[in-house]
Amino acid sequence: MRIPLVVANWKMNLSSAQAAGNVQSLAGRLHEGPEVDVVVCPSYLNLGRVREIVRDTPIKLGAQDVFWKESGAYTGQVSAGMLYDAGAAYCIVGHSEKRGRFGKTDLSPEEIAYFGESDRTVQLKIQALQFHSITPILCVGETESERETGRTDAVIREQVARATEGLDPSELYFFAVAYEPVWAIGTGKSCDVAEAERVCGTIRRTLAELKDENSAEQTRILYGGSVKASNARELFAQPNIDGGLVGGASLDPEEFEQIVRAAV
Question: Which of 142, 180, 197, 257 is the catalytic position?
Fold first, then answer.
């Protein structure tokens, strides 16, 4: 049986004091937590502060990204070894915003070009994380134009295939995938529940075809894209949706608690 997984992606938000306050509030609310794996992903600068607060709680620490090289002249990058040393148990990889695929943004095309994640770099990051026993949370998803032209399934299958290339089926036991329709991130739009379930089922079938059915059945698949307390229970009740990757709503400890409890 797959244990539900709910992940808070705080993105580029919260000062050190605010991050500490949020996670202290959340820890207090979940001290007798439900049978759900709860992960909080603060900014790199707040990993240490949050680690100390969650140490003796059911909450696990995650990171928002990683660089695939172990060390070297890569100014501004953070390696998987550094994340392990900081106490991270999970790490998001391939988020649409890292790929330069935004649902809503005020960035110009020239500024968006700064974000250049590819399927190949996602693959390298996954390998680096698994070497250090950090669970990758692979993000996949289509843009609005890709959906309108009927390419959703093809885009999803390609992203999953490229990211997991070279992985042994046994490595999927320490792996999660988050379906995040790009057009629903930060826009207030939410994918229809039936469609979210269909695409998550497509992800599971793709993993089964690429690896094997048993490992695919054990892989946790999340939905991400305007997850809120008001829609979480219906989403998480679907057979192929094992939890959520939560953005804006995770910044409110009370609402995030409700989302976590909806996963039971």
Answer: 180
